[in-house]
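User: For a reading group we're discussing how well predicted structures match intuition. Take NAD(P)-dependent oxidoreductase. Before you show the prediction, I'll give you the sequence so everyone sees exactly what went in.
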Amino acid sequence: MSVVVTGATGHLGRLVVEGLLDAGVDVVAGGRRTERMADLDARGARVVELDYDRPATLADALAGADTLMLVSGSEVGRRVAQHGAVIDAARAAGVRRVVYTSAPHADTSDLVLAPEHKATEELLAASGLVTTVLRNNWYTENYVQALQQAAATGEIVGSVGQGRVASATRADLAAGAVAVLTGDGHDGRTYELTGDHAWTHDELAAAATQVLGRPVTYRDVTPDEQRAGLLAAGLDEGTAGFVVALDQNTAAGALGDATDTLRTLLGRPTTPLVDGLAAAWSATA
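Assistant: Thanks. Here is the predicted 3D structure of NAD(P)-dependent oxidoreductase, as structure tokens, for the group to look at:
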């Protein structure tokens, strides 16, 4: 079996490539900057340029592949076209199966990031390819910025209320993807992948207290107060609006549905919040 992994220069894609190499799989690691994958090449992956915006690189990377691990792109607003180009290239290359990283409940959610994932899932459904959709919850590592704020001020500030987040670490989600790529019975399935526990921001503050070794509290503010604070901190209007919208999605429960699916794929409990935060914080040192 040959697996092409897109976004192999990113955090999640790299972890998937490493996990597949550990499992003895023939891996093609694709990314825009091949020089950033020299270590993967040294480990035995075939490293190729793969640029969502350059169709020739897609055709070359996918030639002869059985399976495509399509790690969703990072360019919000451009992802549907980019993903569509990869799906078209996969069909033309004779790829049999696509595994795609989507968003929680992408087909029904009001999550600000969901529409592009929903559209991509629809493209996959219409493609005729065998697909598995991995609807990854929020990465625990996304809260390193909150830890940085807490380290400086003793506070985490947001407008999520008591909304819960069933986050998981990138390492756990990558290991789940490897289990799907190397296992049987996953064709045509859609998995909601989360951590075992959906936590509140008060629990996030308690975890931050342990990681940082100083008292941390969560201060809940109104969306307007949050937006004003973000603008005062130097964020542009668009970015501030996105952060506020995400907090309102969280408050409404868009990230709070914890399942045991990832735990089942891993064959073990998922990494607890405090342990995931500690590892991510250490990596920034």
